[in-house]
Amino acid sequence: MAHTYSHLYGIPTTGLRFFTVYGPWGRPDMALFKFTKAMLERKSIDVYNY
């Protein structure tokens, strides 16, 4: 849609995709959330390739 708008009206566009977003809508399988949960529950954190 942005490409079409840019082509029709001659306005350059740039699209951004954020892969690591923290906050209420963050994915629970991300390292930050897993590590925080493990620390709060006093569980060990698995570290691979160390």
Automatic annotation (TrEMBL):
Xref: InterPro entries: Epimerase_deHydtase, NAD(P)-bd_dom_sf
Signal peptide: none
Domain NAD-dependent epimerase/dehydratase: 1-48
Keyword NAD: yes
Superkingdom of this protein's organism: Bacteria
Keywords of this entry: NAD
Protein name: Uridine diphosphate galacturonate 4-epimerase
Source organism per UniProt: Klebsiella pneumoniae
Gene name tied to this protein: uge
